[in-house]
Amino acid sequence: MTNIGILGAGRVGTNLARKLSAAGHHVILGSQNPEDTATRTAGLDPHVSFADQRTTARTADIVINATPGDTSLDRLTDLRTELAGKILIDVSNATRDAADGLPGDLCYPGSSLAEKLQGALPDTHVVKTLNTMLFTVMTAPETLTTPPTAYLSGDDEDVKKTVAGLLGDLGWQPERIEDLGGITTARATEAMILVVPHILRRHGFKPFAVSLAR
């Protein structure tokens, strides 16, 4: 059992907490108001506990960033000491909203949130993954008619193997996990999010993933 901290207790964070705790991990759900989060998410597995984000980052072995991508860099840079030596799995996309609230532009064109995080947190092992799909697909890839792809970007090969193991706990088969290489490759998957609002406007809010077909 691994102690996994999740920063962000919205739909993404609570969805991941539910599946990872069901897989036997102890999950700490970190939010700005842990008591409200505990009340709102009553019924989560007893392996889930609640804390503020600083405590979550300090006590977890592996940390998942599920905070809003446009504010993640400032939030996590403030946790540099707590995140030192940890694996940080970044599942967020840093975008600016269009008029209808859907992603419009990238916050870091020519770079990526994951690269910015790695630069700001040199003692942390950042891995980008699960940012190319609706949050429900992150924990139930088998629900899509076409098998989806989970991409991995990160500089440490052993760390990426650890993250791939956690993806397995979320239901991802090894053949559907695509290791793209170093952290700079995250700019490719983060840019993929720009296709999503056009699809959502035409077809509605349905489960999807931007995947590799072979």
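(the above was protein one; protein two follows)
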Amino acid sequence: MKVPQTIAEASEAGSTLDELRLMRARIARTLDDPNCPPRDLAALSRRLIEIGKEITAIESRAQEDDPVAKVEDGKFNAAAI
């Protein structure tokens, strides 16, 4: 599957994670732009942090669902202690 290159592509054919990653990159570029209006800095910074948390949560859930990441516990042997 082709990785979306724009937020519009991600919203139409990508995943929520694709969309969030592109939004995060767009906001980061805007914050780095010296012409970004100072009045927008706080709101954009706050949104950047929120999107980062959303991405982390989605990635964590995906990792929990990964069967390779799951480890089965062995039988408990009290005598081994």
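Reviewer note on protein two: The longest helix spans residues 38-64.
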